[in-house]
Amino acid sequence: MRLRVRARRQPSGHQLAARPGGVRSCGRQHIVESGFKNNTHQPLPVNAGDFSLARVAKLDGSTSGERMQDVAGDIRRDMQSHCGVFRTSALLSEGVGKILSHVKRAEDIHLQRQVAGVQHGPSRRWSWPT
């Protein structure tokens, strides 16, 4: 059985059909009228990426701890069983408690690199460009 789906046609007097670019021109017009293109971003502080780099360095230099896959699997399982669409407030409260118990475990994770069956230690290649 074949199902044919046709695009809905706008009536000839419809405001979007009257514009040559359709919906896209409405977005362009909004950007031009609001002056978004003239806005500039605030300059980043000099040490903007230091916190992220410190987190990566901590993970890269860790030699022991829980496997990331184990912690992520437990979080995923608890989210699926306690925070789904069909839930009660008691079940959700229990789920919040279980997720908060994984926070301590997530602070002490260890990434194991494995390539072609051989496990590797911390990477020595990482350096921030100067």
How would you describe what is shown here?
There is one protein chain. It is extended, with a radius of gyration of 26 Å. The protein is 47% helix and 8% strand. Strands 1-2 form a two-stranded parallel sheet. Strands 3-4 form a two-stranded antiparallel sheet. The protein has helices spanning 15-18, 23-34, 50-61, 68-82, 89-106; strands spanning 66-67, 109-110, 113-115, 118-120. It is mainly alpha-helical.
> Helical region count?
5
How would a textbook summarize the main sheet? 2 strands, parallel
Topology, number of strands: 4
User: Share of helix among residues?
Assistant: 40-55%
Shape annotation: extended
Cα Rg:
26 Å
Strand order of the largest sheet: 1-2
Order of helices and strands: HHHEHHEEE
Briefly summarize what is shown.
By secondary structure, this protein is mainly α. The protein has helices at 15-18, 23-34, 50-61, 68-82, 89-106; strands at residues 66-67, 109-110, 113-115, 118-120.
